[in-house]
# Entry
Amino acid sequence: MVAIVGQQSRTVLGSAYMQEIDLPALFKDVASQFVQLVSAAEQVPMVLDRAFRTAKATSSPCVVIVPHDVQSAPAPELEQQHGIVVTAPSWSAAAKTPRDEDLAAAAALLNSAERVALLVGQGARHAGKEVVAVAEKLGAGIATSLLGKPYVDETLPFAVGTMGHLGTTSSAHLLGNCDALLIVGSNDPWTEFYPPPGAARAVQIDIDEKKIGNRYPVEAGLAGDAASALEALNQRLEHRARTQWRSDVEAQVSRWRILAADRAAVPASPVNPERVVRELNGRLPGNAQVSVDVGSCVYWYARQLVLPTGVPAHLSGTLASMGCSIPYGIAAKLAHPDRPLVALAGDGAMQMLGVAELVTVAHRWRQWQDPRFVVCVFNNRELTEVTWEQRESEAEPRFAASQELPDFPFAGYADLLGLKGIRVEDPELVGEAWDQAFAADCPVVIEVLTDPEIPLLPPFPAGRQKAENMRKGLAAEDDGGRASALLDTYVSHEEPPGG
# Structure
């Protein structure tokens, strides 16, 4: 992404003038690869060319800051002279392949291992079949980062789901018991859910060599495009017959699928949010796009939604910026107006930004070939993720003054905008609400009254200690009894046979 940002006129910069701000300092972290303030009209073509080339080469946001007086200056006809740089907007991706000696080292490591795990991130978005081919050859299980979830078919019997705090029990088993880890296009920061350092030998594939070894000690690094690197690596791997490790992984996947279904069926007051997302399975159109906000809805997306092959999902995976789902959904519609969009959002995120952005949806939807823009709002009158993190990380009780949200009529507001609003308070009507939304000829807001006491329990073994902290926090709450009971239910489901 290239952001072209305005600035006050050059003549007042440095004077603390009205609406003047130090924009290079503001953007320096999020756009660390390229931020440039334009000082003259002659500089604009060169800076724009560099910004777009850098964005494409580094897969990162870049920022060009154009002062007001430069914006209105005549576009120059540049000639070759000292102090003028004439550039071209063209860019070509490098055909980057790993070195033979690195491939040999990686293959030797993986061939010698007995229990191989793959961790697949968004860098493997064009390498789906190569990922599966390597996993099949090595008898490995496949876990994904949160951003890598759309690029692995989670119906595969050895696809264990998302890793990390909001991940699955089967991913925790895979990463906690492997003796070799192949990281493909992932820079996932949940380092406490990787194998303990020294427990597994690691190989990492990444187009950006700076990221190799960034999250876990790596013995063999393969700098290159994921698809070509995996294809070259696969030629050096030894095919192995079915092993006990593969059987164990598939058993854990089966166990997780039963656990996920059990969790979605836990009675709640009034609606279990896990069920809301689970009911989307089988109903999500095969050509859909998905956007997910920040908050507890990410847990339910990661754990309950099985994305059809080819369905992309957009979320704020690293910065975790609340309020992103509706803007991301609008962007997805601008890119593909002929495809339906589903946005998952909590009431906190909707009150921060989503409510205002629904005005944009109401303004633009008639321009889309497919008018379906389905927003599912998990309305529990609570900043749920922060509440549970407070209990989990600090063993502190819920702080109502900062966590409680005012109720807002999201479905009624949709009707007010000329969209369609559906309010759901009965869990038996969730599926019907999804069906109505996908059959509608206009954007729809499904407002589901969900239960804030459904626990955000990390997968075990890490979740075991987290649950104890949660219990301590809940014990200090006057009304924490029902949440404690639900937590006990989740722990009893998660604890494997034998404890």
Q: What stands out?
A: The chain has three domains: 2-71, 100-253, 266-494. The radius of gyration is 25 Å. The CA atoms of residues 291 and 463 lie 27 Å apart.
